[in-house]
Amino acid sequence: EKAKWPKSTVQLWEKLSKKEANDIETIQKSIVHHVTTTLARAAYNMDNFTAYQAVALSTRDRLISRWNETQGQLSKADPKRVYYLSLEFLLGRSMDNALLNMGLKDTYGKSIEQLGFRMEDVIESEVDAALGNGGLGRLAACYMDSLATLDYPAWGYGLRYTYGIFQQRIVDGYQTEYPDYWLNFDNPWELPRLDISIQIGFGGHVQTTQDEYGVTRHNWIPASSVQAIAYDVPIPGYDTGNCNNIRLWRSKPTRVFDLTSFNEGNYEKSVEDATNAEKITSVLYPNDNTMAGKELRLKQQYFWTAASLHDIVRRFKKSAREWTDFPDQVAIQLNDTHPTMAIVELQRLLVDEEMLSWDDAWDIVTKTFAFTNHTVLPEAMEKWSVPMMEYLLPRHLQIIFDINLFFLQKVEMKFPNDRGLLNRMSIIEEAQPQQIRMAHLAVVGSHKVNGVAALHSNLIKTTIFKDFVAYYGEEKFVNRTNGITPRRWLHQANPQLSALITETLGSQKWLKELTLLKGLNNKVDDPEFRKKWVAIKRANKVRLAELIKTRCNVTVSPDALFDVQVKRIHEYKRQFMNILYVIYRYRFIKSMTPSQKAGVQPRVVIFGGKAAPGYYIAKLVIKLINGVAKVVNQDPAVGDLLKVVFIPDYNVSVAEVIVPASDISQHISTAGTEASGTSNMKFVLNGGLIIGTLDGANIEILEEIGEDNIFIFGCLAHDVEDLRHAQRYRNVPMNPALQGVISAIEKGTFEDPKVFQPLISTLTVGKDFYLISYDFASYIAANQQVDAAYKNQEEWIKKSIRCTANMGKFSSDRSVKEYADEIWDIKPHPVVDEGYM
Ligand code: GPW
Description:
Layout: H1 7-16, H2 24-38, H3 48-77, E1 81-85, E2 89-92, H4 95-101, H5 105-114, H6 119-124, E3 129-131, H7 135-149, E4 154-159, E5 167-171, E6 174-178, E7 191-202, E8 205-210, E9 216-221, E10 224-236, E11 243-253, H8 260-263, H9 267-279, H10 295-317, H11 326-329, E12 330-335, H12 341-353, H13 358-368, E13 369-372, E14 383-385, H14 386-392, H15 394-414, H16 419-425, E15 428-429, E16 435-437, H17 438-444, E17 448-451, H18 454-462, H19 466-472, E18 477-479, H20 486-492, H21 495-505, H22 527-552, E19 561-566, H23 575-590, H24 594-597, E20 603-608, H25 616-633, E21 642-647, H26 652-658, E22 664-667, H27 679-685, E23 689-692, H28 698-705, E24 711-712, H29 717-729, H30 736-746, H31 753-761, H32 772-791, H33 793-805, H34 812-824
Parallel strand pairs: 1-4, 1-12, 4-11, 12-13, 13-17, 17-18, 19-20, 19-22, 20-21, 22-23, 23-24
Antiparallel strand pairs: 2-3, 5-6, 7-10, 8-9, 10-11, 14-16, 15-16
Bound molecules: ligand GPW.
């Protein structure tokens, strides 16, 4: 204990734990030190990857020192904190981001250049941390960046998967999946906390007893248990000493509990049990916007929420406070329904272990949790079968039934004798077997429920949560439009544009106050500025063209219009409609005379994205895109007028190359299906125009940048139900242009047409649920407007500048502030630089 030490010892520690300086010489020393000792390499026997490892370790030292300082000061002050529970944190690479946020990139760049390495090459050696599927996981990462930058006391909690999202390779046009064993080389961006271990139970039975006051007590006796081990990922804020934490749990076998098999003399069985324990955090489920219902996934969810809650409760208990103070110290945000078991686990801890009354406990629980919904798609709604829950978590099942009973009793009081209503609102769905509706449980257990864009937040109030709005009132249901961090998605991904903006606005303040970008509106009429602007876009397109050459072996001209659709492959996102239009365009070009061709705007159509491994139709869309690409790219009648590429293995670091290079990107989901979208924000922030439907955040982007700077088409969310009804029950003929395209596929223009029959059937037998035929005419028209607008380059550049200038609203700093002020009720807590490591 420090307090017992003689003064001289304390002084010695203080002297030796002064922070390292950040001059070139000190940094070079630290890099070489890591090369020769930590990595045990000879100084001259080095490649880019070794250089990366050494720079990463040196960067990590500085991160840890900030982490210690921040967390030490927070422990003392003990302000209210927010805990962001997310099954996914899609961080991508860390080094570039950490150096930029800490303001050390230039110094490190110079340091390693003198040592014989180029920063770009060293950065490229890092593998992505891909612990997420898509938008939901990347949103969590952007929010962590903003929370740290704004000095909010915030921790993320998640799982440390051994395998992240699979790697995608294209073989014969088909997606094939390979395991993403990202921890092959040590991960320098995590701090293993092997001392922090929490025991998590599964299965068993519930013991019911009467205590000395005659009160019924429930005691869960699990049949087996596993250990949760903490791995901490430091998240440095930009331009602040603050450094937050994401705690990821890894499952390990317990040494104390699972001795049954061993004691029965069954050694092999006990080793098998141990291996099963490790399985819990072995793999990220690769489904986006769909629910698979696998038992191991429920195990993951409980393992993670129970470990996180134990940790949170332990931290709370360090200070002598009343349980009623818990919601004044702790806010927990549920990122979708995945962590909903945390509601049940906290109620169990408070009632069974802390001996609070049910009502007192429930009051604390509902004041603590808030819930973000990210979709209205029925196939994504999480439901767990009652028998599975009973088998894995018997006490939790009892609690869920009690929560439901007390809730429905209150509903009955407010709306008597409405059996249909109780049926609809029940947490338990009366199916065979019964199902637990996690979204209902999340709503009932939270004090606030939010959607992720204005349209979406309104939609959930009129569809999936309609009855709940009638019961709780409007105030519980709020909107928090998503945002993205401008640090990664402009400053880091587009350094040249970032530099031009800083030069133009006179400082870097815009990176923390994104609405300052409005200042660029004055520059629209400055031809010199426009020249610089377009030169940067072109340089970014050259870089993307190089990536396309390497990955797809297709040569594309940076002078063509770059048209991009990168996102998870899903029917509702309508990549199918995009490639059908490409076929239309291809056939149109082929029908032209040479003089007509001279008037065609050359386009490169760029696709990227993963399909869930079990999503057959989505995988056929990838196959079709590659089939079309193969034919179009080698057709001399088309030449450079049209190229089609599918960039394999789309991920965060590939997005950082694609986003700054886009002229137009596609956000074309059927209205009402894309809750928000966040890549739309990334593209527009980088001066890329978008073509999109009136869906998700597209609507708010339109409001901010103005209708002259965006290409909108398609039906309204409000009309979708009627249009689907017509598709189903009346014989609506297919759009004739689309009919022509389908015939071309069926004639075998792109390989064996039999392959694509199931895909085509979604339009016919499947009654075109996503309304591709209905929207096709306006989609063609919008694409013609894009071509026409691009012809007028000076006007196009003006639109591009206006895009960037008016995107201030979509900073995740704004989103996070809105959560902090009205949902979490937390305040910034800036760290004081005391100069110690
Ligand atoms: F189904 N989103 C996602 F709601 O990326 F859980 N994965 C998912 O599994 C779900 C949603 C879920 C996305 C939405 O599709 C997208 O519109 C939104 O911008 C993003 O979450 C962040 O809110």
